[in-house]
């Protein structure tokens, strides 16, 4: 698994895809952070992270579309399946490489909060001692970061599975965009439905509704289990796809 992981990490930066993903991620995060905080004169960071989830509709497929589709297109898939590594190790190596690039970009993008905290510090210095809190709530920022990381892992697992189904990277990207878009929009569809049972079922599957607890700086075990379950299911399905190809 480690060899696959290292190979994938190298390939992200041998090819331009890694630089493109990181560049687009940093630009989008900076613009969204500026719009939701400085322009809006607000220290509430939950709206920034919520909008980042929508940005993932485009960003995650950019990261995952080549994971397996490129191997099939270049006819190197058989080399992977005959390598001295298990199918699970192969899938996990690729998944963890994509997750590492995503998590690294997410953590580096936290630089966006430095000027916001600095500005808040200046404002606090100009206010009286007994003034109300001014500045971003650190607990909220940390909670949102954890939630965003879990959502990203789930979306990457979905993109990994879809990439394993085709050799066309564009098709993998388009299908991944469609699936992630559908999952994100479930919360908005739910507001248009009157039936309580259907609303409950849709709300249970909604990605955004599970993120709400993290946006308040609270740890939600059920949400953690939900995101881990999605990640596990789609990675398991990816393993099954390649087990079928190996022995089929």
Question: Main β-sheet, in a few words?
Answer: none
Please report which band the strand proportion falls in: under 5%, 5-15%, 15-25%, 25-35%, 35-45% or over 45%: under 5%
Poorly predicted regions are none
User: What is the general shape?
Assistant: globular
> What is the average of the pLDDT values?
83
Distance between termini?
Answer: 23 Å
Number of beta-strand segments: 0
Radius of gyration: 20 Å
Helix share, percent: over 70%
Secondary-structure-based class equals mainly alpha
| Domain unit count | 1
**Count of separate DSSP helical elements:** 12
Order of helices and strands: HHHHHHHHHHHH
Task: Explain what this protein looks like in three dimensions.
The protein has 12 helices and no strands. By secondary structure, it is an all-alpha fold. The radius of gyration is 20 Å and the shape is globular. Helix 8 (138-163) packs across helix 9 (169-190) and helix 8 (138-163) runs parallel beside helix 12. It has one domain. It is 79% helix and 0% strand. The protein starts with a helix and ends with a helix. The model has no long low-confidence stretch (mean pLDDT 83).
Topology diagram in text:
Elements: H1 2-14, H2 17-39, H3 46-64, H4 69-73, H5 77-82, H6 87-108, H7 113-126, H8 138-163, H9 169-190, H10 196-205, H11 207-215, H12 221-247
Summarize it.
By secondary structure, this protein is mainly α. It is 79% helix and 0% strand.
């Amino acid at each position: 698994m480690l060899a696959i992981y290292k190979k994938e990490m190298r390939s992200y930066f041998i090819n331009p895809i890694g630089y493109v993903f990181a560049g687009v991620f940093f630009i989008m995060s900076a613009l969204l952070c500026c719009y939701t905080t400085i322009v809006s004169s607000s220290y509430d960071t939950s709206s920034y992270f919520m909008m980042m989830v929508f940005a993932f509709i485009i960003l995650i497929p950019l990261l995952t579309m080549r994971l397996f589709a490129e191997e099939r297109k270049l006819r190197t898939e058989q080399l992977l399946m005959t390598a001295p590594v298990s199918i699970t190790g192969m899938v996990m190596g690729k998944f963890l490489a994509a997750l590492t690039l995503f998590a690294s970009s997410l953590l580096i993008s936290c630089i966006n909060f430095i000027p916001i905290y600095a500005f808040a510090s200046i404002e606090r210095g100009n206010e009286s001692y007994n003034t109300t809190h001014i500045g971003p709530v650190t607990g909220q920022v940390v909670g949102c970061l954890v939630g965003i990381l879990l959502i990203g892992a789930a979306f990457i697992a979905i993109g990994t599975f879809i990439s394993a189904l085709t050799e066309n990277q564009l098709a993998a990207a388009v299908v991944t965009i469609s699936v992630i878009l559908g999952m994100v929009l479930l919360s908005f569809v739910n507001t248009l439905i009157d039936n309580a049972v259907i609303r409950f079922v849709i709300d249970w599957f909604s990605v955004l509704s599970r993120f709400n607890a993290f946006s308040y700086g609270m740890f939600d075990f059920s949400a953690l289990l939900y995101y881990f379950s999605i990640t596990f299911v789609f990675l398991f399905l990816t393993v099954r796809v390649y087990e079928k190809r190996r022995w089929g």
